[in-house]
Amino acid sequence: MPLSGSRRQKARGQGASKVRPLPKKRVCAPGALEAADAASGEQLRTSDCWIANESCFSFLPKVPKASVDLVLTDPPYVISRQTGFESCVNGESRFAVSMDFGEWDRAFTEDDLKRSIREFYRVLRPGGTCVVWFDLWKLTPLKAALEDAGFKQCRLIEWIKTNPVPLNSKRNYLTNAREVAVLAVKGGSPTFNAEYHDGVYRHPIYQGQDRCHPTQKPTALFKELIEVHSEPDDVVLDAFLGGGTTAHAARDTGRKFAGCERDPLYYRFSAARVLGDHEGMSAAKTAVKEAAARRKEAAA
Ligand SMILES: C[S@@+](CC[C@H](N)C(=O)[O-])C[C@H]1O[C@@H](n2cnc3c(N)ncnc32)[C@H](O)[C@@H]1O
């Protein structure tokens, strides 16, 4: 049995949010979730969720062909650099901006992106949708990579941050208010619970307690995207979990989830977040901060 749920029996437009706590029992339903058996690192498996601490290049080949309904993913943007605004901007430290996200961003290449996109195409069912967030200035190579893999109907999605971080407002009046994703479809008839949509989603940058990753996306944004592009019980996949936003949003919208994260500390945070384990989340956050402080000290 594929990982896919009973999406097509369900009428379009019935994707209303529902919070469904995951069962604590770590058992797998028959199907693709069982493919986790060969995983090497730490992993969390329930009947609705399989997440693993490993690279997408070892994880994705274990996901059966055509077993996923929606890929919603946010790979490294390959943009880490020094901004010169790391500690203070316009005299205010709260406006400090760092574009050096760390090794996880520097180590990823555009060839890695192409490789993962070919795997997304393989694991998606015909008619499945793929949404890839990426650097605004690199959309042309992203679109080309999607089309080379076989995807059709590339369209743009924008996230407008309703509380953007001011950059250097003395030099430029424009804030950094926009992030973009390319949406593409694997042939067939895709699921979309919307009509005449401009593809613009407005949400604030999330600053709450369960923020751990430097580029963590707002859960509200990912919940909205999941509800528009899939049905309850469908399978959502994210191979670059970061702080686990896609897994969390899939759980809260009643979807199944499969995904991985290479970094052990972000993986731990994601797993604790999916389980609603606040102590685990806070321990992982502390470990992330300590590791960052050690790296900074070593670099000084
Ligand atoms: C842009 S972040 C994802 C942020 C996420 N959307 C969130 O809301 O927290 C990308 C993540 O991909 C992870 N990553 C980088 N290379 C990877 C790989 N080969 N396999 C799996 N994860 C990888 C990084 O460690 C990083 O946490």
What best-fitting shape do the alpha-carbon axes yield? globular
Give the helix/strand class. Answer: alpha/beta
DSSP strand count: 9
- The overall pLDDT average reads 83
SS element count, helices: 8
How would you write the strand order of the largest sheet? 1-2-9-8-3-4-6-5-7
Distance between the termini: 53 Å
Q: What Rg is obtained from the alpha carbons, in whole angstroms?
A: 19 Å
| Main sheet: strands, sense, barrel | 9 strands, mixed
Write the H/E string, N to C: EEHEHHEHEEEHEHEHH
Give the distinct bound molecules. Answer: S-adenosylmethionine
Low-confidence stretches: 1-40, 82-86, 88-97
Please give a structural write-up.
The protein is 29% helix and 18% strand. With 300 residues, the chain is of the alpha/beta class. A hairpin with a 3-residue loop joins strand 1 and strand 2. Helix 3 packs parallel to helix 4, helix 5 (219-229) crosses helix 6 and helix 7 (264-275) packs antiparallel against helix 8 (278-299). The longest helix has 22 residues, at 278-299. The radius of gyration is 19 Å and the shape is globular. The relative contact order is 0.19. It catalyses: a 2'-deoxyadenosine in DNA + S-adenosyl-L-methionine = an N(6)-methyl-2'-deoxyadenosine in DNA + S-adenosyl-L-homocysteine + H(+). This is Methyltransferase. It comes from Rhodovibrio sodomensis.
